[in-house]
Structures are given as structure tokens and as C-alpha cells.
Amino acid sequence: MRPNWSGNQIATVSLPEHMATNMVMRGRTRIGLVYCRVRLHSPKIIRCFRCHCYGHRATGCKLNDRSANCMTCRGPGHLSKECKEPPNCFLCEEMKKKKDHFPEIGKCEA
């Protein structure tokens, strides 16, 4: 149990997969006198700010330094908020996949 930002409590429970699936399908469970919402917990994905790849941090990164490139079009010299070009995911481009999206969104296969 831990408090969240609104002062309520959050409980994290580890269950076997079949029990967790049943609980999530019901959507709510009773804890004491209160019915609580149930959601699956997904671990936070780590991303490097230097090379923009997933799975490691910038500290000790030995891959290409892309920190000066725009995250939308990969172009140098401007920020994503100023970019007028269509999105171009360089992570998917390196994998020879469809690249017409931003690197962070669900379409990204990287």
C-alpha cells in the first residue's frame, strides 16, 4: 500500500497470470468495505536521452549521440516543438520497419 497524489491508497499485488486476468476482467474488487478499480501494472520503460534507444540510460551510453537531433524528423539544429516536417522514427528505420511515426508511440516497433 502507498498513497497516491490525491491522498487515496494504491495497493500493488502480485498474482499468478490466470488470477490476474480474471481480476482485471471483472474490473473491480472488494477490499474491506470499499470496491476498488483494478488495473494491470506495466513496468516503466527506460530510454536513453543520448541515443534515444530503449533499455539503457545515457550514463555510459556508447551508441551514436543523437541528443542534438529533432525527435520528430531527425534533423539537426531545431527542437521538436519547432519542427514542420512529418514524423520519421529513426529507430524503426534502422530496423527496416515502417517509420512514419514518433519514436515514443504505440506504433513504434523498437
Structure described in brief:
The chain has 110 residues and is mostly loops. It has helices at 17-26, 90-94; strands at residues 2-3, 9-10, 28-31, 34-37.
Q: What is the makeup of the main sheet?
A: 2 strands, antiparallel
The N- to C-terminal Cα distance equals 34 Å
Secondary-structure-based class equals little secondary structure
* Cα-based radius of gyration, to the nearest Å: 20 Å
Low-confidence stretches: none
Order of helices and strands: EEHEEH
Query: What oligomeric state do the depicted chains represent?
Result: single chain
Strand content is: 5-15%
Q: Can you count the helices?
A: 2
- The beta-strand count equals 4
- Average pLDDT score: 81
Helix content: 10-25%
Strand order across the largest sheet: 1-2
Question: What sort of overall outline do the alpha carbons produce when their principal axes are compared?
Answer: elongated
InterPro entries: Znf_CCHC, Znf_CCHC_sf
GO molecular function: nucleic acid binding; zinc ion binding
Domain CCHC-type: 70-85
Keywords: Metal-binding, Zinc, Zinc-finger
Description:
This protein has 110 residues and is mostly loops. 14% of the residues lie in helices and 11% in strands. The protein contains two helices and four strands. The protein has helices at 17-26, 90-94; strands at 2-3, 9-10, 28-31, 34-37. The strands form two sheets. It has a two-stranded antiparallel sheet. A two-stranded antiparallel sheet has the order 3-4. Strand 1 (2-3) and strand 2 (9-10) form a beta hairpin. The chain is elongated and about 55 Å long. It starts with a strand and ends in a 16-residue tail after the last helix. The mean pLDDT is 81.
